[in-house]
Amino acid sequence: MNKTLNNKAWFMVLPVLVLVAFSAVIPLMTVVNYSVQDTFGSNVFFWAGTEWFQEILASDRFWAAMGRNLVFSAIILAIEVPLGIFIALNMPRKGWGVPVCLVLMALPLLIPFNVVGTIWQVFGRIDIGLLGHTLAELGVNYNYVNNPVHAWVTIILMDVWHWTSLVVLLCYAGLVSIPDAYYQAAKIDGASRWAVFRYIQLPKMHRVLLIAILLRFMDSFMIYTEPFVLTGGGPGNTTTFLSIDLVKLAIGEFNLGEAAAMSIIYFLIILVMSWVFYTVMTNYGTERR
Amino acid sequence: MAVKNQTATTADRVAAGTSENASGSAKSQEELGQLMLKRGTQSRFWWLVPTIYIVFLMLPIYWLINMSFKTNGEILSTFSLWPQEPTLRNYMVIFTDPSWYSGYINSIIYVVLNTVISVSAALPAAYAFSRYRFLGDKHLFFWLLTNRMAPPAVFALPFFQLYSAFNLIDTHIAVAIAHCLFNVPLAVWILEGFMSGVPKEIDETAYIDGYSFPRFFVKIFMPLIASGIGVAAFFCFMFSWVELLLARTLTTTAAKPIAATMTRTVSASGLDWGVLAAAGVLTIIPGALVIYFVRNYIAKGFALGRV
């Protein structure tokens, strides 16, 4: 669509601008302030320069949380993306199965994050949970509260349960947009199943898939509530991800300078990822039009 | 012509299917290709994968529902796949105890406030983005996205201080405005996606017919993107409903959301598993009720209107 140049359109954007400025710019400035200042309490602040940044970049705790978060994001992407594509390929395209699949699959996406944590907390317990109890019956010594490996497996399983449907639904949206003629052409050429997937379905899904991957990366990179409810970051610090660590630092220990510096580094990473995301999204838009 | 092609291929597919059944030999590449063309729906086991997946999704939810109808004694003493002595006690506790049901009321108040604010602010902005070029429009659009992607953990502390300064802590409006951080960008992006699908000629024709802008927007344009407004409202509602970190940070008692009530019950001694499960089930219901109506737009909503 060719848009007309009209700078008065700014007036229409103004409400959004004011609203988001109040809830994003002002708080962000506070964070910037804290990150370059130090205090001995009683609201007396003095300039600290890049001290906090140096401290956070040198702290093992930050890098450990960052490492855990990256490993977590990598694992769930490696599981959810192929699984999501596989399920989307096997979903019905017409008939009564379509709404049933869509509604049931989307259900976990709409459950409050802390309830997701609670569901899995209950589900995994050895005494009262279906999963924990069944595993115990089978002779597996499963305990996500004390065993770090089990805690990780449970969190990953929970995230797969919670978010794979997003990948499924996005891929499905890409698949149903492929015209029948493509498949007919492939049939005439005698294309193998793999070839159909590789040269017809994958290219058609490629943008939706990219969106799905980016969304999953972003959301897993800032995951907080689900692991917080399930394990509280433990046992020890083994499931303390960046967000959990940040909240601990800021509200638990009231270590404002370090928390603010960490927030800004965190935010910069998100900013770069958002830019990639934006480029993908808008390129898709121009191609569509 | 196209119709003929269609019927011909359908006949081929049926023929291929019967020959496949008859021979039952190892599948050659060609047969695999034909299997692919049936695209799931016509092969006999297409339902297996979605069914297994849906069972996997439903099991934990079923377990929660199952628990919510059990007494605490039964939950802790016996292990049963369905309630032996079904009870509504857990739900009764929630509906009669103000500290429980006020959590739902608080949540619904701020969620509805947030949805109304987000969608009504986003409507004109999305129109501007979809119809006009203006100074800095692309930067602004990108900046909005970064807010959707921002980790709430970064904002928890500054929000607390900001709203303390305005004396807004523990009010519904504070949470509603805080959630605008990610919901306004979401609504703008989704609505822009829908609005760009409406041809610009409609606007021009309306102006020629003598409509003023506000009248055109309300009378003609909004009905055209009604489904988009519905989807945007649904997603604002949902994301505000599922968010806990900010809502919990900004409230103490008077506006405490149900999600926070639940976490505090978990950490308290003497866990009332039955009531916890019942509370969890009740938080799933709003999503489950309306999801059928937006089923075709779920992917579009999550992808910010870009699918």
Give a verbal description of the structure:
The complex is a heterodimer of chains A (289) and B (307). Chain A has 289 residues and is mostly helical. Chain A contains 12 helices and 3 strands. In chain A, β2 and β3 form a beta hairpin. In chain A, α1 runs antiparallel to α12, α7 crosses α9 and α9 packs antiparallel against α12. The model of chain A has no long low-confidence stretch (mean pLDDT 85). Chain B is an all-alpha fold and 307 residues long. Helices cover 74% and strands 1% of the residues of chain B. Chain B has 16 helices and 1 strand. Chain B starts with a helix and ends in a 5-residue tail after the last helix. Chains A and B meet through β1, α1, α3, α4 and α5 of A and α1, α2, α3, α6 and β1 of B. β1 of chain A pairs parallel with β1 of chain B.
Rg of chain A, rounded, reads 23 Å
**Number of DSSP strands of chain A?**
3
Alpha-beta classification of chain A: mainly alpha
Helix count of chain A equals 12
Global morphology of chain A:
globular
Please tell me the total number of domains of chain A.
1
Question: What series of H and E elements makes up the topology of chain A?
Answer: EHEEHHHHHHHHHHH
Main β-sheet of chain B, in a few words? none
Going by CATH, the architecture of chain A would be Orthogonal Bundle
Query: How many strand segments of chain B?
Result: 1
Write the layout of secondary structure elements.
The complex is a heterodimer of chains A (289) and B (307).
Chain A lengths: L3 E2 L3 H27 L1 E3 L5 E3 L3 H8 L1 H30 L7 H10 L6 H12 L5 H8 L10 H29 L3 H9 L4 H29 L3 H6 L11 H11 L3 H33 L1
Antiparallel strand pairs in A: 2-3
Chain B lengths: L1 H22 L5 H9 L10 H21 L3 H6 L11 H8 L1 H34 E2 L3 H13 L2 H14 L6 H24 L4 H9 L4 H12 L1 H17 L2 H5 L8 H10 L5 H18 L7 H5 L5
